[in-house]
């Protein structure tokens, strides 16, 4: 519960430097217990957890018209990604489409509604 709270309320995933050690220190819990909690409680590994929150953040920013003028990479950086390759790979793996296709699909929908 505390891990999810840190993700939702404090958005620790937005830090490009977040790693298991940092998260464990914030939770004041040994890293092996944090890993076990993520694996067993959420069915994910640490990086899958972080990237899931980052992709959701990017998706919400991409459909927000105030962020239309920003590049995909600036949106990705805002969500915690610091590599274009990783961002594109993870986003496509989790959504089935590229970030630019996702943005285009949602901008089209917004224009037709």
Give the structure's gist in a few sentences.
This protein has 113 residues and is mainly alpha-helical. It is built from 7 helices and no strands.
Taking the alpha carbons of the first and last residues, their distance comes to 38 Å
Q: Give me the strand/helix succession.
A: HHHHHHH
Query: Which percent band covers the strand fraction?
Result: under 5%
Please give the radius of gyration in angstroms.
Answer: 15 Å
Largest sheet: none
Helix content: 55-70%
- Helix and strand composition category: mainly alpha
Model description:
The chain has 113 residues and is an all-alpha fold. The protein has helices spanning 2-8, 20-27, 31-42, 46-63, 72-78, 84-95, 99-112. The protein is elongated and about 45 Å long. The protein starts with a helix and ends with a helix.
List key phrases describing it.
single chain, 113 residues, mainly alpha, 0% strand
Q: Which helices and strands appear, and what pairs or packs with what?
A:
Layout: H1 2-8, H2 20-27, H3 31-42, H4 46-63, H5 72-78, H6 84-95, H7 99-112
Helix pairs in contact: 4-5
């Amino acid at each position: 519960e505390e891990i999810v709270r840190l993700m939702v309320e404090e958005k620790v995933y937005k830090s490009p430097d977040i790693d298991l050690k940092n998260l464990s220190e914030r939770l004041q819990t040994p890293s092996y217990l944090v890993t076990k909690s993520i694996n067993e409680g959420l069915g994910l590994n640490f990086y899958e957890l972080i990237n899931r929150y980052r992709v959701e953040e990017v998706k919400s920013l991409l459909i927000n018209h105030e962020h239309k003028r920003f590049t995909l990479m600036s949106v990705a950086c805002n969500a915690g990604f610091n590599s274009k390759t990783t961002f594109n790979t993870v986003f496509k793996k989790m959504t089935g489409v590229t970030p630019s296709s996702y943005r285009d699909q949602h901008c089209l929908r917004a224009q037709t509604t």
